[in-house]
Structure formats: C-alpha cells, structure tokens
UniProtKB/TrEMBL annotation, chain A:
InterPro entries: BP-dependent_transpt_permease, MetI-like, MetI-like_sf, OppC_N. Belongs to the binding-protein-dependent transport system permease family. It comes from Fusibacter ferrireducens. The chain crosses the membrane at residues 21-39, 80-106, 126-151, 195-224, 245-263. The keyword Zinc-finger does not apply. Its main location: membrane. It holds the Pfam family OppC_N. The lineage of its organism: Bacteria, Bacillati, Bacillota, Clostridia, Eubacteriales. It is found in: Cell membrane. It comes from the Bacteria. This is ABC transporter permease. Keywords: Cell membrane, Membrane, Transmembrane, Transmembrane helix, Transport. Residues 78-267 form the ABC transmembrane type-1 domain. It is a multi-pass membrane protein.
Automatic annotation (TrEMBL), chain B:
The chain crosses the membrane at residues 12-32, 99-122, 134-159, 179-199, 238-263, 283-309. Gene3D superfamilies: MetI-like (1.10.3720.10). This is ABC transporter permease. Signal peptide: none annotated. CDD domains: TM_PBP2. Residues 95-302 form the ABC transmembrane type-1 domain. InterPro entries: BPD_transp_1_N, MetI-like, MetI-like_sf. It is found in: Cell membrane. It is a multi-pass membrane protein. Belongs to the binding-protein-dependent transport system permease family. It comes from Fusibacter ferrireducens. It holds the Pfam family BPD_transp_1_N.
Length: 282, 319
C-alpha cells in the first residue's frame, strides 16, 4: 500500500515540470542558506561609503541601508525564514497530532473538552490571536516558533481526530484493545502509522503558511528583531527607502515568493497522492 | 428547520461566553486596570481609591466579570491607556473605514472568481485552466504586504498615477473623487489577495457539479455545453459559496490589517497594531472579542443559510 503510493508519487513527480523545478529551488535555497558563511562578504559589516547601492558585479543584490552586502543578508535571512517555517511546522504538527489522537481515541468527555478548546482557539481570527500572543512571548527565534506553531495546530487536530475516529473502528485496533494492550501502545503502534500520510500532507501544507506568517509578523515589527534578520524584517527596513532603492524591497519578496510557491507545489503533489479525491479540485 | 437553527444558536452562545471569560482573564493578567487608564499623576491616592470603588474593582471577581460583560454588551468599551481616548468613538470611525475598502474588494473578487472559476472548471486541463491555476498559485504564494509595496512603488512612486497614503489628500477639501482615488491601490491589493482561494473554491465546485448525473442526462438530451453550464451548473456550483461569504463576516473588521498599514489607511488594522505595540490592552481586548464574536456569528449564519437552501441538512435538524 505504502509502496504503491510512493510509486505514484514518483510518477506524478516525474510528469510534473513545475514540481521538479520546485524541488530544485528548495534544494538550492536550503544549500545556499546552510553555506551562507562561504560568502566573501561579512553579513554584518557596515560600510557608509556604499549605502543602498544598486546591484553590481561585486554586490550582486546591491547593498542595504548601512552598506551591507544584500545577497549575503538575504541568505542569512533565508536561514531564519526557513528555520522558523520548519520548526513551526514541527511544533504545530506534534501538538495537533497528539490532541487529535487523544481526542479521537478516548472520545467522551476528553474529546468534548479538547474539541471545545479547539473551537475557542479557532474562533479568534488568526491574525489577532498571533499578534496578541506575540506580545506575551518575546525574544529570539524560539518565541516566533512558539507563537506561530503553538497556536495554529487546531486544523491539524481536527483532521487527525476525524481520521483517528475511523481508524478506531478498524478490526486490528479492536483486537489490540481486546488483547489488553496499553492505550499508549495502541495509539503509538496501531493508530499513528495509519495517520502518517494525513499528517505528512497537513505538515507540508503548513510550512509555506508559516513562512508567510513569519514574514508578515516581522514586517509588522512583531517577529524577528534586529540584529537577527529574516526576509520579513528586511522588507520592513526596505519600506523607508522604497522610492529610491526598490531592489531592497524586490529581492526578499521574490525569495519568499519562490520558496512559498515551491513548498505549495510539493505539498499539493503529496496531497493528490494521499487523497486522490482532491485531485479534481486542484 | 427551526429546531436546527435553535440548536446551532444554543451551541454558539456558550462559545461566545467562554471567549469573553478568556478575554476577561487576560484583562486580569494585565499589569494595569481600568482605573489606571483614566488616572493622571496629579490625582490624590484617596481619589484614585474612590474611583476604584466606583468602578467596582474591589468587588468579587465574578461580579466584576458580570459588570464588565454588561458594559461591553451595552457598547461601553472603556478608554485607551495610552491616549485616554474613547475606544467606542475611535472604532466607530475606523470600522467604517475598513469596510469601505473590504466590501468593494470582496465583491469585485467574488465576481471575478465566479467567472474565472467557472471557466477554469468547465475547461479543466486546457490552457485557460492552466493560466488561471498559475495565477492562483502565484498570488497565493505572494505575501500581501509585499504585493502592496510593489504596487506602491510602481503606481505611486514611479508612474505617479495614484496617491500612496491615507484616505484623503492632506490640505485639500474632502471629496468623493479624492477618496475613490485613494481607495484604488488598497482595493486592488485586497482583491488580488482574496482571489485565489475563491477561484479554487468555485473551480472545484464546478468540477464536482459537472460530474453529477443530471449533467450527463442533459448531455444525452443534446443540451449545449453553454446551456448546461449557465442554466444548471452555475446555480448549483454557487450555492456552497454562501458558506464562504458567511465565514468572511469577520473580515469586515480584521480583513485588511496588513494592507491598511502599508497604505496608511485609517482603519482597524493600524489602530490594533498601534495598540499591540503600546500594549494598550483595553483596545486589544475589545477587538479580540469583537472579531471573535463575528467569527462565531459568521459561521452560524453560513450554517443557517446553507441549511435553508440544502434540504438534506434541513432533514438532519428534524431527526
């Protein structure tokens, strides 16, 4: 079953030019972010003589408002943006999966309480919830990860719960229960593996969202703070120099666009394989 | 049907109450109270104590909650800590300003989405479908604020066609023409931001309808594709849109946060973000509870409207 899915994924991937492109873009972006330190320019070296220079042979992306090499800055920004995206995805997926499994497996009062809690959190518009939380939790990359990942697992929890409810009715789960296995073991050994495809899809689809949210929060001054910089905070700084130095605004935005597009593309590819019914819709 | 509506309303009420309790708890956690927001340094300690008594801050907590809930329900939202201005007055200016850009953008986006979604769905897999899909993929991957910045640069700074900031040109008399001119860029940005999700919704709904039996029946009777599409599919494909429209109700308040702050549009967004930066908690909490209530009401409306239209759900409520 799993293998057949994997074969299908491979075939769909091979047939889709844009999916291949997306994978190339993401690989390149990740490698550039990891090896950003190889850049000949120091990301923090300011140079008042060349403030906001347009792109040139020496500085491919030009320089920023204090003369730092913008390409190097963008690559270090990629580190922050990608790290936040992936860590927030992991946080959100773990919380969502645990809440969903526990809720769906035990049912009854546990389910009611957890799902009412999910209802409450989902009733607060996301943007409001995240901005409000961002004033309570501050400092460093972990704060942003917690703000984004810790308050966006509700959808994942609902999906996992629904899936768990149906797995709960499967014979092998019933046998496991009858044979007196512990609840933890049943959830871990018998339910979780069945949930895996759904969880992987939900997680992949969440990464691009997390990247956009991080950039929006940082753009509004509520996310990454100096001296750390992400694509969002670079765009925030570029706002003041928009009319004279548009390249400062153009470049980080294009990086976000490329990354988010690629993640979306691959996420859709996964989704079509796991849930073929959705293929018609997208 | 009445039973179903009643049941849904009964489910929504506890949710609103729970959110209000959550909000109230946040107020209690905050380092200031309502009296701090109206005191000035030259007031005597006795006077402040008397004010606290008057505001009921010495009462037991559940009575404070009830008093606060009563005040909020009657529209008394209190004062900002930072500017000491009346929150209700400020919101009564800012919510209409937000609606002024959100409503036209939403309606325009809805119209474009219906047309493009229907065409893309009917011609699934053709070049036009691929173009529409490409447009959706790209706009979906573009942060709204960046799109706003690019528009600002092109149309306002480079071409000098449109104004960049605010609602009216400063120093000029307020005119409708000036207002529309200022609305243009924020509205275009919002419309494009709303579009991809709507188009995909209409498209997949159209594809779903085209696979239904009644379409095959129509085809065997020799109805033209155009006829099938506009006479039958359109109506059925648009019904689920009601859910989407209902759920968009909170957008009237929170739908344009980022766009407003880029174009300095004096709506709820900049007001809220200013409050967030200054930790002006009375404002934050009012907007929190207001927008959450709108989410709940919006979902309720969507469910009820959908139930009224779709008879299968009607039966569910009666059983």
């Amino acid at each position: 079953m799993k293998n057949r899915r994997f074969e299908m994924l491979k075939e769909n991937f091979k047939a889709d030019f844009y999916a291949k492109l997306a994978l190339w873009i993401l690989t390149a972006m990740a490698l550039l972010a990891i090896f950003a330190f190889l850049s000949p320019h120091d990301p923090n070296l300011t140079n008042v003589k060349m403030m906001r220079n347009p792109p040139s042979a020496e500085h491919w992306f030009g320089t920023d408002e204090v003369g730092r090499d913008y390409l190097t800055r963008s690559l270090y920004g990629a580190r922050v943006s990608l790290t936040v995206g992936i860590l927030a995805m992991l946080t959100s997926t773990v919380i969502g999966t645990v809440v969903g499994i526990v809720s769906g497996y035990f049912g009854g009062i546990v389910d009611s309480i957890l799902m009412r809690f999910v209802d409450i959190l989902s009733s607060i518009p996301w943007m409001i919830l995240v901005t409000v939380i961002s004033i309570f939790i501050q400092g460093g990359i972990w704060a942003i990860v917690i703000v984004i990942g810790g308050f966006s697992w509700m959808r994942a929890a609902r999906i996992v719960r629904a899936e768990t409810l149906s797995l709960n009715q499967r014979e092998y789960v019933m046998y496991a229960k009858a044979s007196g296995q512990s609840h933890f073991n049943i959830m871990k050994k018998h339910i979780l593996p069945g949930l895996l495809p759904t969880v992987v899809v939900t997680a992949t689809i969440f990464i691009p969202d997390a990247i956009i949210i991080e950039s929006t929060l940082s753009f509004l001054g509520l996310g990454v703070k100096a001296p750390m910089s992400s694509w969002g905070s670079m765009l925030k700084n570029s706002q003041s120099f928009l009319s004279d130095s548009p390249h400062l605004a153009l470049i980080p935005g294009l990086m976000i666009l490329l990354t988010v597009y690629s993640f979306n593309k691959l996420g859709n590819l996964f989704r079509v394989v796991v849930d073929p019914k959705s293929a018609g819709g997208n | 049907m009445g039973k179903y509506i009643g049941k849904r309303i009964l489910q929504a009420i506890p949710l609103v109450i729970l959110i209000s309790i959550l909000t109230f708890t946040l107020i209690q956690l905050a380092p200031y109270d309502a009296v701090d927001s109206i005191t000035t340094p030259d007031m005597s300690a006795e006077y402040i104590e008397a004010l606290k008594e008057e505001y009921g801050l010495n009462d037991p907590i559940y009575r404070q909650y009830l008093a606060w809930a009563k005040k909020t329900l009657s529209g008394d939202f209190g004062y900002s800590i930072v500017t000491h201005s009346n929150i209700k007055e400020a919101l009564s200016q800012r919510i209409p300003a937000t609606m002024l850009i959100v409503i036209p953008s939403y309606l325009v986006a809805l119209m474009i989405a219906v047309i493009l979604g229907l065409i893309a769905g009917a011609k699934q897999g053709t070049l036009i479908d691929k173009i529409v899909d490409g447009f959706c993929s790209i706009t979906m991957s573009t942060p709204t604020f960046w799109m706003g910045l690019i528009f600002l640069y092109i149309f306002s700074y480079k071409l000098n066609w449109l104004p960049s900031l605010g609602m009216y040109t400063t120093g000029q008399e307020k005119s409708v023409k000036d207002l529309v001119w200022h609305m243009f860029l924020p509205c275009v940005t919002l419309t494009i931001a709303f579009l991809p999700q709507m188009i995909r919704y209409v498209r997949s709904s159209t594809i779903g309808q085209l696979a239904e039996d009644y379409v095959s029946v129509q085809r065997t009777y020799g109805a033209t594709e155009k006829n099938i599409l506009f006479r039958h599919v359109l109506k059925n494909a648009l019904l689920p849109l009601i859910t989407l429209v209902g759920m968009s109700l909170p957008m009237l308040v929170t739908g344009a946060f980022v766009t407003e702050s880029i174009f300095s549009w004096p709506g709820v967004g900049p007001y809220f973000l200013g409050a967030i930066r200054g930790f002006d908690y009375p404002i934050i909490l009012v907007i929190l509870i207001l927008s959450s209530s709108l989410v709940i009401i919006g979902n309720l409306l969507a469910d009820i409207l959908y139930g009224l239209i779709d008879t299968r759900i009607k039966d569910l409520g009666n059983s």
